[in-house]
């Protein structure tokens, strides 16, 4: 039995030695510079002169810090021998270079604004100011000045290419791929003679693991094909596009002539398809060849980064033209929002109950809120950059514009489209 706690011998500790108070003096950056310069330079003279120089520098530093605390910004000292004209000249040259390159200029006041009246300062965050600055430089002849790496403008009435820049160079085109995914799905729906609003499919695990933009689908969800078309085009859901490709890929596999005998012999219950999406991709490329998209190759139904999934700006204008001729596609891409109910059991319920939930999707193409715009699709990936295809109509003026790899900030892709439309309408 252990003795009680009070009978335990006391614990002896070594007495802590008192620490000496050490005062660490860390000279500032200016003080270090003054000390080094006073040692290396012979022009400062004697030690008294060096001490007086050091005290003057220290007082200027403390005064400068107090000014920063009060005003919140750095202000140059009055006694510093800095030529202000050199700073003004440097800022002015930098600002002129940004304006010449078409880059946004930060909000501020130009040094020579009083000398050069009429110079407008714009904010890089305002797309409206970017359009206004670009409109002021519109020329009466030639194509509009667009900063995208490659772009193309197609006349919908005649089907001819009006203007373009590097429109035949292949690039990745991100989620604009989903336009072809939905177009192939619509053609297969008519071939199967089914009602898209009354035909339901189930979301698989692979669709929910695509990554990127999503329609917030969950594995096991049941929803109609009509809802999936909206989920792929409005919020640019990769899960919705993959579900369409997988289910229609199974249909394409069953209807192949060389597999019909195997299906009839073994039955559908004993047949497993390893990768049904590949059959859907073959159908996408067959339709691309029929549309004479000679520089286009589809290797993904979602548009996620894939070095083999490439097209050109001119081919994408043709793709959007054919897609807008489909009544279902044209109706969906013109919607700004859409709501649907998904269920985790079959048959799914049209109303909210146990096991179902409501989904609301917003269109990523914000140009639809402006008058005259009626489609079609946005896209962005690390490799493709911000991309946008848009259609505009006003009277007899009807065009499709495709921008690929916009190398300025992503929100200004709508400003690029608006500027191009303005230039063409002015001519």
Short description:
The protein is of the alpha+beta class.
Structure explained in plain terms:
The protein is of the alpha+beta class and 427 residues long. Helix content is 39%, strand content 15%. It has helices spanning 29-40, 47-71, 84-101, 127-135, 177-192, 205-208, 225-233, 238-254, 257-266, 277-290, 313-324, 327-333, 413-426, and strands at 148-155, 161-165, 200-202, 222-224, 337-343, 356-362, 373-381, 385-394, 397-406. The strands form 3 sheets. Strands 2-1-9-8-7 form a 5-stranded antiparallel sheet, sandwiched between helices. A two-stranded antiparallel sheet has the order 3-4. Helix 1 runs antiparallel to helix 2, helix 4 packs parallel to helix 13 (413-426) and helix 8 packs across helix 10. It is globular, with a radius of gyration of 33 Å.
Secondary structure elements and pairings:
Blueprint: H1 29-40, H2 47-71, H3 84-101, H4 127-135, E1 148-155, E2 161-165, H5 177-192, E3 200-202, H6 205-208, E4 222-224, H7 225-233, H8 238-254, H9 257-266, H10 277-290, H11 313-324, H12 327-333, E5 337-343, E6 356-362, E7 373-381, E8 385-394, E9 397-406, H13 413-426
Antiparallel strand pairs: 1-2, 1-9, 3-4, 5-6, 7-8, 8-9
Please state the CA-atom Rg, rounded to the nearest Å.
Answer: 33 Å
Proportion of residues in extended strands: 5-15%
Q: How many E strands?
A: 9
First-last Cα distance = 104 Å
Biggest pleated-sheet summary: 5 strands, antiparallel
Uncertain spans: 1-15, 29-44, 60-90, 107-127
Determine the mean pLDDT. Answer: 75
Pattern of helices and strands: HHHHEEHEHEHHHHHHEEEEEH
Based on the structure, what is the oligomeric state of the protein chains?
single chain
What class, by secondary structure content?
alpha+beta
Residue share in helix: 25-40%
Shape: globular
- Strand line-up of the largest beta sheet: 2-1-9-8-7
Given the structure, what is the number of helices?
Answer: 13
